[in-house]
Amino acid sequence: MKSIPIVLSALALATASLCGQSFADHHGEAEMMTLESVSRGDHRSEANVARNEWRHPVETLEFFGLESDTTIIEILPSTGWYAEIIAPYVRDHGKYYAAHFSPNASAGFMPRILGVFEKKITDRPDLYGRVTVRHLNPPHEVVIAPAKSADMALTFRNVHNWILAEQEHEFFASFYAALKPGGILGVVEHRAKPGTSVQVMKDSGYVTEAYVKEVAAAAGFEFVESSEINANSRDTADHPEGVWTLPPNYRMGDTDRDKYAAIGESDRMTLKFMKPMN
Known about the structure:
It is built from 13 helices and 7 strands.
């Protein structure tokens, strides 16, 4: 498993200095930085900040127990919505690993999204210059951090894809290997109705809490607690194009768009697990 080095040119370093000064002017020194200030920072686009309403990043990260000195792995961070918050927050006192798609992945969109993420972190070294990118591509690439080194691993809205690929057990095993004894695994996932079959989970993108707990337990994790931070009672989880019917995807285009916009983003479980101490 290879880490991706962040190589900065002289121009990039100069830009970093200026950008870092600007960030500090708005948000103070690292010791003064809060999750709230980073989540609304001017390094984030208006569109991304607007989605805080649905994703509740501050409350979610506080529930999982994130601190500024946490060594954290974000699993498949896509283009970096959560990375924009987590990586700057832990930059000076903790460590952020991005367990991202492999450039060798068979699905063409995966290397493309990896490239978008890597551009984000190289464009703002003042924020992301200490990020380490690892590749996660079971069964070929599964070492996402040194064994037993991480305090926390978080994944947001990814489990349904692993179920579709029939690789959910391999993914959870990689998290378990990377976490310290006592380390926390946090899972946010689109929530299916109890009793939903695995096939319907694959088709709809919604997963039952019971199945996530089953897969986590099979990997060795202990369930700690759940939160309704990311619940959405308006979501019935039975839409024509599955979870992708809702924003931000709107897979049905303009058909009933106002209806689905009023529902908002999906109803989501928020589950905390722990790697046992022994």
